[in-house]
Amino acid sequence: MSAQERLRNIDVLSYELETDEMITAQLVKTYLSGLPEENALEIMRGVMKGSVIHLAAEEAEDEGQQDTEESRLVEGKQLAALIDTAVASIHRCLEEHMFSANTEEAKEARAMAIRAVGSISGKLTVENISPELLIFLTDCYRALRNQ
Predict the structure, then answer these.
(1) Mapping DSSP to helix (H, G, I), strand (E, B) and coil, where does residue 53 land?
(2) Vertex 93, ends 118 and 35: CA angle to 5°?
(3) Domain of life here (predicted)?
(4) How far apart are CA 136 and CA 140, in angstroms?
(5) CA angle 45, 89, 93 (to 5 degrees)
(6) To pair with 62 at 20 to 30 A between CA atoms, which of 54, 74, 96, 113?
């Protein structure tokens, strides 16, 4: 099974995300699924490379490691950029197909979807990220990385 197929098999609903994060997760998954494998993996490597596991202060001292502010930070710029790029890509796609809707109800539904997608902000998502969304992103990275 290809990495893209493994990525497509990830069920966003199984992560029990809040509504905004569920939309964000689906947008990221859809965006990554549409990219060539190498590009998607490179993007996720950029997002995940800043991830660190912080040891408690006592454990860090025992291991001779310094407990610096920098060692406790997870870089969110790449993740925010990925989310914003995914939002823009899907938003553009929805707008392009806006007028292909057959009924007025379908056009209204598409307009609501466009507004919902447009309201997602990478920066705000990263600032308020849940453990569940982090697990989802880790699973996406694992799906792309494992061959």
Answers:
(1) coil
(2) 105
(3) Bacteria
(4) 6
(5) 145
(6) 74
CA distance 92 to 60: 47
Burial class (CB in 10 A: 0-12, 13-18, 19+), 136: buried
- DSSP per-residue string spanning 92-144: HHHHHTGGG-SSHHHHHHHHHHHHHHHT--HHHHHHT--HHHHHHHHHHHHHH
Look up residue 63 and give its two tokens.
Answer: 């291991």
Q: What is the pLDDT of residues 51-109, one digit of tens each?
A: 654 445 544 444 444 444 443 344 588 899 999 999 999 999 888 876 676 788 888 88
Q: What pTM does this model have?
A: 0.77
Torsions phi, psi for 59 (to 5 deg): -65, -40
Q: What is the rounded CA–CA span in Å between residue 87 and residue 132?
A: 20
DSSP assignment, residue 67? -
Measured CA to CA, the distance from residue 146 to residue 108 in angstroms comes to: 41
